[in-house]
Amino acid sequence: QVQLVESGGGLVQPGGSLRLSCAASGSMIRVNTMAWYRQAPGKERELVTSITIGGVTNYADSVKGRFTISRDNAENTAYLQMNSLKFEDTAVYYCNANIRNSYGWIRDYWGKGTLVTVSS
After folding, report:
1. Which partner from 20, 56, 90, 94 sits 20 to 30 angstroms from 7, CA to CA?
2. Straight-line distance from the first to the last Cα atom of the chain, in angstroms, rounded to the nearest whole number
């Protein structure tokens, strides 16, 4: 019964900042790589950033230098700090995590998403 829950989305002005959170809960043996994806209206879902359990990160070119991903392994939580937000950052943001559950099976889990709207 593993689940991911995102929070922190909302309305923000261009140039502003927002911080998203993703909390994993349930019967888990290990939470491996965690990631943030986003899907804008009429577009395909795309990878924004990811972080390994050891803290190694990667970013899409469109957000590099503006977004920062981090995680708290003790709390099974990932964060996305978004700065210098642009109109094109408007999207539903989804949390993703590769998890080994209590049965020993590995699979990716998805949150339901949180909406970020950048508008003046």
Report:
1. 56
2. 40
